[in-house]
Amino acid sequence: MAVEPQILGRAVKAAQYRQHRTLDSRLASVGSTLAQWDALRAIARTPGASARRLAAATFQSEQAFGTLAGRLVAQNLVERRPGHGRSIEHHLTAEGERVLRAGHEVADSVLRECFAGLTEPERETLLRLLLKIEDARPEAGTG
């Protein structure tokens, strides 16, 4: 039986939507949103990164990331520092690190719930297949 690509695509999107809604809702308990926590996570992985690099890492436009980073600075979660040339570096503050850690606990709990219906071998297979799709994806604008 052939699987229709649109049905498969919608099922992936529905699972992602449910996961994101639950994460966003529960991250509020630690004073964050999913977009903010994801930005903090990206900054923690690459301290000193530029807005361009962080926008790509968080699947946002540079403009959207810049607006988000401004809110994170205003909340004392991130600080911006001059970098090489005209680049601005992004770093977590102590409060940003605290919110990131609390967010990790929330995310781990939510994601365990989201994937609870799958066995460990099924989760491994799902991850392998999703990575296979990602590795085969043509870059935007090239295909």
Number of strands: 2
Content of β-strand: 5-15%
Q: Give average pLDDT, whole number.
A: 93
Physical arrangement of strands within the biggest beta sheet:
1-2
The main sheet comes to: 2 strands, antiparallel
Q: pLDDT below 50 for ≥5 consecutive residues: which ranges?
A: none
Fraction in helix: 55-70%
Structural class estimated from helices and strands: mainly alpha
Distance between the termini: 29 Å
Described by the principal axes of the CA atoms, the overall outline is globular
Order of helices and strands: HHHHEEHH
- Give the count of helical stretches: 6
* Radius of gyration computed on alpha carbons: 17 Å
Describe the model.
This protein has 6 helices and 2 strands, in the order H-H-H-H-E-E-H-H. By secondary structure, it is mainly alpha-helical. Strands 1-2 form a two-stranded antiparallel sheet. Strand 1 and strand 2 form a beta hairpin. Helix 1 (5-27) packs across helix 5 (94-114), helix 2 crosses helix 5 and helix 3 (51-57) crosses helix 4 (62-74). It starts with a helix and ends in a 7-residue tail after the last helix. The model has no long low-confidence stretch (mean pLDDT 93).
